[in-house]
Amino acid sequence: MSAKAIRDFSILLVDDKPENIILLEEILEKQNRQFISASSGNEALKIVLKNPAIGLIMLDVQMPGMDGFEVARMLKTNSKTKDIAVIFVTAINKDEQYVLQGFNEGAVDYLQKPLDINVTRAKVDVFEKLYFYQQELKEALLETEKVNKQLEKFVYMVSHDLKSPLASIITIMSSLRGNEIIESDPATSQKIDLVYMASNHLSDMISSILEYSKQSLSQQTIEEVDVYELVNQIAFLLFPPKSITIKISHNLPVIHTRKIKLQQVFLNLISNAIKYNDKEQGLIEIDADETADFYIFSVKDNGPGMLTNDTDRIFKLFETGDNKSNKDSSTGVGLNILKVLVEEQGGKIWVESDAGKGSIFYFEWKK
């Protein structure tokens, strides 16, 4: 949020008596506040529609013509004004029936005339803070949406670029499978068959990602996913070396979700566990637990682990760990992408690690 946005807090004061508006301005005056006044309900509605930055409305209940209740009702029925906080300022006896009517019309609070200066200031201070929290949340959501669109575009470009060389590999493998010399050597023939089968699996996966990335979030298909089968397929396609054992728990559930997103998370975590394992006999274990709202998946390895200060920063964009045992350099992008994907589901991702002994990555996936 910009410094200017933080400084400016606009309050609309609505009262048919000018002296009441002047009194409110004197009570609430602050360096960062701007006051706009209206002497009637109709005038207030016109001002609000022309000023989208209004953060709070102090609304008199008893006004000639359109009263405060009716103004609040109309504000709440308009999509552009329904989220603006409204405080009723009233001389009406604060009986339960009036209080309930006000809340039903959309008010968030009441102030009773004659005004208590300290209470009035304290309440407005609270709504000012809430207003800026809401603005920060809106900006964060917009930024997340922007990042998501960039990631979808990135995935599309990478997937598209992979299609051509992969098609060449499939063609070459297909021709080798029928070669008499290759067929005469069972061991080589078996390896060729494995590469050919894996290449076709990867081609299907890339085609799915390409199709998926072209769709908006609302268009992306939610389908039944056997997570045990999905993880087994990923493990097969990654061709782990013989020194690494991958154990996949039968606890992995069958869920309804966007398959490609879940696939991306598991693919990244398992491939990292293989890539950075430094043990003579590597072990990777994939398991699942659940709460009322989430499945909690875990990918555990016995690799190099990481330092305590790394576990909090590795999910930030372009941040990498300090562990020097990594076989390859890292851009610090992959885990940040996973964080975005998991948080898009309403969950979170975290890691527990013991330097030299291994790590366990956990992530939540909404049921």
Written overview of the protein:
The chain is of the alpha/beta class and 367 residues long. It has three domains: 3-115, 3-Layer(aba) Sandwich (Rossmann fold), CATH 3.40.50; 144-218; 221-367, Heat Shock Protein 90 (2-Layer Sandwich), CATH 3.30.565. Helix content is 49%, strand content 20%. The strands form three sheets. The chain has a five-stranded parallel β-sheet with strand order 2-1-3-4-5, with helices on both faces. It has a five-stranded mixed β-sheet with strand order 7-9-10-12-11. Helix 6 (117-177) runs antiparallel to helix 8 (186-213), helix 9 (227-237) packs across helix 10 (259-275) and helix 10 (259-275) runs antiparallel to helix 11. It is elongated, with a radius of gyration of 30 Å. The chain starts with a helix and ends with a strand.
Structural topology:
Layout: H1 3-7, E1 9-14, H2 18-28, E2 33-38, H3 41-50, E3 54-60, H4 68-77, E4 85-90, H5 96-105, E5 109-112, H6 117-177, H7 180-183, H8 186-213, E6 223-226, H9 227-237, E7 244-248, E8 254-257, H10 259-275, E9 282-290, E10 294-301, H11 334-344, E11 349-354, E12 358-366
Parallel strand pairs: 1-2, 1-3, 3-4, 4-5, 7-9
Antiparallel strand pairs: 6-8, 9-10, 10-12, 11-12
Key features of this structure:
single chain, 367 residues, alpha/beta, Rossmann fold, Heat Shock Protein 90, 3 domains, five-stranded parallel β-sheet, five-stranded mixed β-sheet, disordered N terminus
